[in-house]
Design goal:
Layout lengths: L1 H16 L42 H13 L1 H21 L5 E12 L14 E14 L5 H67 L5 H35 L33 H22 L4 E12 L11 E10 L7 H67 L5 H35 L7
Helix pairs in contact: 2-4, 3-4, 4-5, 4-6, 4-8, 5-8, 6-7, 7-8
Length: 464
């Protein structure tokens, strides 16, 4: 009885030792984070963003396109498949920690060699053999090898989930950016069409004045050149609009041929809070994925270290075997085996040493990648905040330029009608007014795109 008790104590002790782990104590790689962003300086009044961050633009058609993206984007479907595969792989690795139970059995007819060693004269040359057996094996995982392997696989699966979220965020930003460019192109089309109407009227007036010998043929040529130039600009803008529409179709999983979007206005510009704390970056999925890969690499060190220690497992076998028609379940036909199994490589040509060095190198690489991802995220936020601040100042100056150009255009027209200036002054004033209007609209479109890029850089908005 004491022998049995001692064996039981040894087994329980071995199981308890399974709580050991040779992985280093995990710490997230340190990165110096700013308290805030130097580029933030927008008005303090800001509305909280919804979970679907693009709804801040208050555009139902953009909302519908984002829903199409989630439902039909092949790129997003690919990321989902990668995530499912990573989860399945994690489950496969984790299954090694559970007891492994198997069954084998089957009838067999076989022939013995006439020269088989120790074969008796009464043994038949050909006989039947029926067998059935259950097997059990359980790795005690004394040094945390399986546990760290499972933890690493689980962390990689979590990283794949974050990769999926990052892909969704990236695609939604691309879609929002393309959509905002499309609406900006439509606004510029309106400006050019209005300008073309004005140029047609100016050409008709100039031709009338030429027939009345008030204007010169040079004025007519200039008016025609101005009209043709504006029409050429509109043709180029129409082509850009079509390309943007095709790109949107591809993103949402629709054929570019026949894909149409209803006309719409330029969306509203969201307000950015005056203070954006740097910890908002913690919601970025690419940073979360990089951190999970650091954790997985840290657990991989534990796996590599455990390879230097004995691997202990418990094995068991219970079955029956006959050489004729008797039942394999009969007491006399049963066989069993039970006992521990220890294994330790003695010489492996440096394989374990190389695996350990590789594990440490992979941890260093994952840590460096994490720091690089965080620094890139900080730079992206600063870039967009700086761009928004500069575009806001530029928009104010461009507003003044539009007002001045429109006033100059009206003065030039009036003075030309009175014969005080040549048509060259009119052409110059109209060109300046058109360019100022197009420039102002371009700034508005870029502000919207920078806002979308800022929200994506923050992980999907500034409020959760």
């Amino acid at each position: 009885m004491r022998v049995v008790e001692r064996r039981l104590v040894l087994v329980l002790g071995a199981v308890l030792l399974g709580g050991c782990s040779l992985a280093p104590t995990y710490q997230v790689p340190a990165v110096a984070m700013p308290a805030g962003y130097e580029g933030s300086g927008a008005p303090a009044a800001a509305s909280p963003l919804p979970a679907a961050w693009w709804q801040a633009f208050q555009d139902p058609q953009l909302d519908h396109l984002q829903q199409q993206l989630v439902e039909a984007s092949p790129t997003l479907a690919l990321a989902v498949a990668h995530y499912d595969a990573a989860r399945a792989a994690a489950g496969e690795v984790a299954s090694a920690r559970a007891p492994q139970v198997g069954f084998s059995g089957g009838p067999m007819r076989q022939r013995q060699s006439d020269d088989k060693p120790l074969r008796s004269a009464t043994q038949p040359a050909i006989y039947d053999s029926n067998s059935a057996a259950f097997s059990l094996s359980f790795d005690l995982d004394l040094w945390g090898r399986l546990r760290n392997a499972a933890a690493a696989a689980g962390a990689r699966a979590e990283a794949s989930g974050d990769d999926l979220a990052a892909a969704r965020l990236s695609l939604s930003q691309q879609l929002a950016g393309l959509y905002l460019q499309l609406r900006g192109a439509e606004a510029q089309q309106v400006i050019l069409r209005d300008s073309i109407d004005d140029y047609r009227q100016a050409l008709a007036l100039t031709e009338d004045r030429f027939r009345g010998e008030i204007a010169s043929e040079l004025d007519v040529a200039r008016a025609r050149h101005q009209l043709a130039s504006a029409q050429a600009d509109l043709d180029a803008l129409d082509a850009r609009h079509a390309l943007l529409r095709h790109a949107i179709a591809e993103l949402v999983g629709a054929p570019a041929s026949g894909f149409v979007l209803a006309d719409g206005n330029l969306p509203a510009l969201p307000q950015v809070p005056a203070d954006l704390p740097s910890n908002l970056l913690q919601q970025r999925p690419d940073i979360a994925a990089a951190e999970r890969r650091v954790f997985a690499a840290n657990a991989g060190i534990g796996v590599a270290r455990a390879a230097w220690f004995p691997q202990l497992s418990l094995t068991g076998l219970l079955g029956g075997q006959t050489s004729g028609s008797a039942s394999v379940l009969d007491v006399g036909n049963r066989y069993w085996a039970l006992g521990p199994l220890a294994a330790l490589p003695v010489f492996d040509g440096g394989r374990r040493r190389a695996a350990k060095a590789q594990a440490y190198a992979e941890f260093d690489a994952a840590s460096a990648q994490y720091r690089a991802t965080v620094l890139a995220a900080i730079r992206e936020v600063e870039d967009q905040l700086t761009l928004l601040r500069q575009l806001d100042a530029q928009r104010g100056h461009e507003d003044d330029a539009v007002q001045a150009a429109r006033r100059a255009e009206q003065i030039a027209r009036d003075r030309y009608a009175g014969g005080a200036v040549s048509y060259l002054d009119v052409v110059s004033a109209q060109t300046d007014a058109r360019q100022a209007q197009l420039g102002l609209q371009d700034i508005q479109s870029r502000q919207l795109q920078a806002s979308a890029a800022l929200m994506a850089a923050l992980g999907g908005g500034w409020v959760r």
